[in-house]
Design brief:
Blueprint (H helix, E strand, L loop, with lengths): L2 E5 L15 E10 L2 H8 L13 E3 L4 E6 L2 E6 L9 H11 L3 E4 L5 H10 L2 E4 L5 H6 L1 E8 L9 E16 L6 H27 L1
Parallel strand pairs: 1-2, 2-3, 3-6, 6-7
Antiparallel strand pairs: 2-9, 4-5, 7-9, 8-9
Helix pairs in contact: 1-2, 2-3
Protein name: L(+)-tartrate dehydratase subunit beta
Subunit structure: Heterotetramer of two alpha and two beta subunits.
Organism: Veillonella rogosae JCM 15642
Amino acid sequence: MAKHILTTPIQAADLEGIKAGDIIYLNGHITTCRDVAHRRLVEYGRELPVDVRNGAILHAGPIVRDHGDDKFEMISVGPTTSMRMEKFEYEFVKQTGVRLIVGKGGMGPETARACKDFGALHCVFPAGNAVLAATEVEEIESANWRELGMPETLWTCRVKEFGPLIVSIDAEGNNYFENKKVEYNAKKEEVLEEIYKHVSFIK
């Protein structure tokens, strides 16, 4: 697996050569953006208050300490299940021009189609590393749609070497999780056939 460092703003050319399964580290900015924000944009036609074109979003509901005077501290920022956003992601990528989507677990064919059509990546932040992820946030620069509560607020963060991020869908639409399922299922059938031979012999 190759290692890549991306810095926002990210151009389509920056994604060339990056393949599903590669490792990414992000410098620059990333905005937390999950269920309600996707729904507001796609279903209700509300423009995002943050420009994420050529930028990055994180499917996450962080824990943030409010120090007052619009000063915040990231305590924990664990990714949430990306598949919940699957039904929105094609239109979301189309409308916003976002280049990097980070979350937990894989995504499906609509996200793969968006990555291929518009030049984007979906990446996975390894589970169980929410506190580590928070240490890679240098500053929370803005907080939008705070009326939605802490998990759904759009927290725009300046980050340094945010990762490791595993590319689950590359800009050609290759889906690492789905490809591995096919590979594992093929191996499973081979193993089962071998087991059945031995079971038959024992009988």
